[in-house]
Amino acid sequence: MADPDPSEDMPNEDMDVERLEALDAYNIMDTEPEPEFDDIVLVASTLCDTPVALISLIEKDRQWFKARVGFEASEMPIEQSICSHALGSSDVLVIPDLRLDQRTRTNTLTTSERRIRFYAGAPLMTPDEVVIGTLCVMDVEPRPQGLGEGQTAALQALARQVVTLLEMRRISQRKDDLFRRQKSISANIRSSVNANLAAQEAGRVGTFEIDIASSMIRVSREFCRIFHVPVAEAYPARTFEAMVLPQDKELQSSDATRREGSAPLDVEYRIRVPGYGVRWIARNASFRHDEAGRPVKMIGTVRDVTAAKREAARVQALLDLGDRLQDLSDVESMAVAAGDLMAKALDATRAGFGIVNAADETVVVPPEWCAPGVKSLAGLHRFRDYGSFIDDLKRGEAVVVADVATDPRTRSHAEALLTLGIRVLVNVPIFELGRFGLIAFIHHDQPYPWVEEEISFVRSFGNRIQIAMSRVQAEQEQQMLNREMSHRLKNTLSMVQAIATQTLRPVAERDLVEAFEKRLHALSTAHDILFEQNWTSASVYAVVDRTMNGLGVRDRIDAQGPNVRFGPKGSLSLSLLIHELTTNAMKYGALSNDSGRVAIDWRIEGTGQDAIFRLSWRETGGPAPREPQRRGFGSKLIRMGLIGTGGVLVSYDPPGFSAEMTAVLLQLAQAD
Amino acid sequence: MGQSTPLNNRAVLVVEDEPLLRMMAIDLVEDAGFDAVEAADADEAVRILETRKDIRIVFTDIDMPGSMDGMKLAAAVRDRWPPIDIIIVSGHVSLSEADLPDRSVFFSKPYDWQKVVATLHRMAAH
């Protein structure tokens, strides 16, 4: 049979987390030796008659010894740990000869010059039944009989004693416990802890009573916890007034407003807690008056409403984002607008987006949102100048560095980050079609307790920004393409003009040549209007207006109708028709004298697919109309009607020439 | 209008890289009663301006190969030969007033022959 895997009884991940949290709660790792613990290992080694005894605490990557006799190292890598095999059980682990046990025969303690042969370890089990390490003894001689019965029981009793000491120690440190816990747990565990804390805090109510004459404030224990100050019965009121952010100062009561009884009663303001960042406080108060009616006390309650406030701010920011992005058409102002919204929702000092080159591991930061007095990071940056977190980003993981000075990914570059005012760093990678091209970043210059919902919030912001940026990019490309297309088209029309001019030089009827040239211009004008609308549509009014302008008779025309847009084909057709009608009127009709006018009216009749566009052209004030003898190209064009579908009625009855033309609106509005 | 202008001051320099368009522009200029001088790009135009003193108006396209485009040529003309009037044509849809040098007029291609002729006459009449 094959040897069992030496790692099979190593702690699994869940146990890992529980153990790390328990260890953290004790705040014991890397502390100075303490005589109570030293005494226990001394007693253990004497009782078991071993040269070595240790209180061994198992962290993620190492075991560390709170107390030791007969052993020089203060810690060892987890791979060399024997104690880690004892974590899975509440019983004493005894290994009579390490050389013979599959779990330990290759262990360096066995093979190195230390030549440890015998091991016995009693688990250190917390009241919550989490094993955090062992009290262990070791010998350089094998002990086939193991420990005596009395020795085993004594070792277990001493192990319980160790835990009792740890518990006592913890209770005495309780008021700092919360802080320390947050300081060193890794970011992921931390955010869940914070979420729990936030939930608890939301339900907590602190009470206070301010004596107005002395400005002293009596506070409850909960009040102290909410303001993160040591629990005490009373404080000077200014202790808490000093914590309020400058922009919220007016909401907080002061000596003067309390004396007058004018302080606002129900307010929400922000405080800055050193080492803990910004918190939202909801305070409700009322005044107690003396017999003369003067306020003597202000009493009330406080609640920490940070979590609720931030959640509301996030929802609002996401709502605002849509509006802000809609109005913007360049990537830079989008990044600033979105950064502004993110920063406000997260009380950040800096927030924005960076365009990532994953292959080069560089990022170009367009101008971002910065708190007043904070320097912008706009420009090119190399990720590796700030640590190794680019590896996580490339894998698509959000990077939350709770403290750049302690996080293993940034601590060797902490100076570079702190110089830029970055204490807390969050980078969320945004992928498009599997490609890592954008990051959203948030910086805080003070500790900030990130929660999972906030990471999702940043991610969703990033995704929406990316969509908006892609849209803008596509629009810019389209614009460029249109410009190019228009340019080529107009050059081509110029060539046609040049060829015609050369070809028609010998033609004696100059008016025909001129008519051709003018038609070419009408076509070119219609293209101009279409181009301005990205080649999609043109308004009827614009086509009429511009064509008339080109012919210099705009002031003789009364044009009106609803705002209707035609597609490219409809626009070109309308423009040519209006051109022919106008030149005819200039030659024979109302525009051939100085006073005649033309009324152009259009309207939509019916709805849906059958809606009809109807345009009427009525000339007045010209010479008596006469039907032409010969039908030229112009008349033919007019009779073909809009997009060549007919539907034209012309009349030469007084008071002047008139034409009615109709076509199906849907066909006119079609893109092609 | 143009009659009082001395003959040696009625030359128009046509700068256009596309031969067909240049030919048309020369016809236009000559039909309007001016002497046409032609150049295929801005560099050639500058060489001509440096040697001939009778150029009254420069008629130039914008998009041309060579070290200068028509806009740069127009700026150079305005700088080095202040009395010369300028007509600029291009297939680009429009140019804003701010982009144009003083005493220059822009026409979008294809241009209206009559309007260009009228502008030439107005410029020469000053």
Give a quick set of tags describing it.
heterodimer; A: 672 residues; alpha+beta; Beta-Lactamase; 4 domains; seven-stranded antiparallel sheet; 19 helices; 40% helix; disordered N terminus; B: 126 residues; alpha/beta; Rossmann fold; five-stranded parallel sheet; 4 helices; 5 strands
Structure in words:
The complex is a heterodimer of chains A (672) and B (126). With 672 residues, chain A is an alpha+beta fold. Chain A has four domains: 160 residues, GAF domain (Beta-Lactamase); 101 residues, 2-Layer Sandwich (Beta-Lactamase); 165 residues, Beta-Lactamase (2-Layer Sandwich); 166 residues, 2-Layer Sandwich (Heat Shock Protein 90), CATH 3.30.565. Chain A has 19 helices and 26 strands. In chain A, the strands form five sheets. In chain A, strands 13, 14, 15, 16, 17, 18 and 19 form a seven-stranded antiparallel sheet that branches. A six-stranded antiparallel sheet of chain A has the order 3-2-1-6-5-4. In chain A, a hairpin with a 4-residue loop joins strand 7 and strand 8. In chain A, helix 10 packs antiparallel against helix 11 and helix 16 runs parallel beside helix 17. The longest helix of chain A has 52 residues. The two termini of chain A are 78 Å apart. Chain B is α/β, with parallel strands linked by helices and 126 residues long. Chain B has a single domain, classed as Response regulator (Rossmann fold, 3-Layer(aba) Sandwich), CATH 3.40.50.2300. Helices cover 37% and strands 22% of the residues of chain B. Chain B is built from four helices and five strands; from the N terminus they run βαβαβαββα. Chain B has a five-stranded parallel sheet with strand order 2-1-3-4-5, with helices on both faces. The longest helix of chain B has 13 residues. Chain B is globular, with a radius of gyration of 13 Å. The termini of chain B are close together. In chain B, 37% of the residues are buried. The N terminus of chain B is likely disordered. The interface between A and B is medium-sized, with 26 and 17 residues.
